[in-house]
Amino acid sequence: MLDRLDSLLEKAKGALEDSxxxxxxxxxxxxxxxxxxxxxxxFQAIGKLPGDKRPLAGKRANEVRSALESAYGERVEALxxxxxDAILQERVDVTLPGRPIDAGRLHISTQTLRTxxxxxxKMGFQVFEAPEVETELNNFELLNMPAGHPARDMWDTxxxxxxxxxxxxxxSPGQIRAMRxxxxxxxxxxxxxxxxxYEQVSSRSDFMFYQVEGLAxxxxxxxxxxxxxxxxxxxxxxGADRKVRFRCSYFPFTEPSxxxxxxxxxxxxxxxxxxxxxxxxxxxxxxxxxxVVLENGGYDPREFSGxxxxxxxxxxxxxxxxxxxxxxxxxxxxxxLSQF
Length: 340
Ligand code: DAH
Fold this sequence. Notes:
Layout: H1 2-18, H2 22-33, H3 38-47, H4 54-89, H5 108-122, E1 126-127, E2 133-135, H6 136-139, E3 165-167, H7 173-182, E4 187-196, E5 208-218, H8 223-238, E6 244-251, E7 254-263, E8 280-289, H9 291-296, E9 305-311, H10 313-321, H11 334-337
Parallel strand pairs: 1-4
Antiparallel strand pairs: 2-3, 4-5, 5-9, 6-7, 7-8, 8-9
Helix pairs in contact: 1-4, 2-4, 3-4, 5-10
Bound molecules: 3,4-dihydroxyphenylalanine.
């Protein structure tokens, strides 16, 4: 029995030296120290020896087992060190450029919105949010466009299956909500958000886009206040020496109504393809809040007046960055989005 133990020890140690990797070592452990190993057989055989032979054989078997266990432990450590050294000796070329990290960024529309918020915040405007799903009442009726009003044709509308509920076609219905919330106090808010139109999608119009509405209501607010605010906005957004021009226009919810242009940022007013040879670029619509709208918001038009304006951040970004197709904005093409 003792001889068998000695030769087992010898054989196992030799095999351990031959194991070159951790997988091989594991096989070795199963073979020599596992439940079905020769050593287990020997322990079982020792149990059947005559009483006087048992202690010596048992002692020797225990010695062999602990010798194998500690040899195994050492060998594992040695192999791990070897592997670590091999990794450390791999050459690292510290002059290679690092791997680029793709940082996320804000969407160009969000960046433009934030610039608009900043400009108006400095002039005392707070942000007021209104829902994208609106009533026909707020979107049209209370903005001075009763059912059948021809001006409703200016906005191709997504109606929902619920009678009188639609996707807002502009941010103007937020004016009614703001007025009803703040009445009878003065108001100075901008209302940003998404709008939806049942449009033929083209390079100039998409079915979903942002708008930023503005609304100021108070006593003795005049067209001069609107002009000053728009000139300041035009210059902050497009450059300090911009010229700002007001053209007569028509919106049912303002009277008088205007459209605001800046001199072309490309040709400076000489005429080019971007401004279609006019020298001017339209940036927004505006006007003095119509008395009917003021009244619908809860204000007495004999005491209060106000101005309102509405602009498209995508259109503004297109002008600022010379983007020629609005479909890029929500087309989710990273080659476009990552430029901003
Ligand atoms: N709601 C208009 C549109 O979508 C834009 C607009 C024009 C808003 C004049 C206004 C305004 O507040 O006064 O075309």
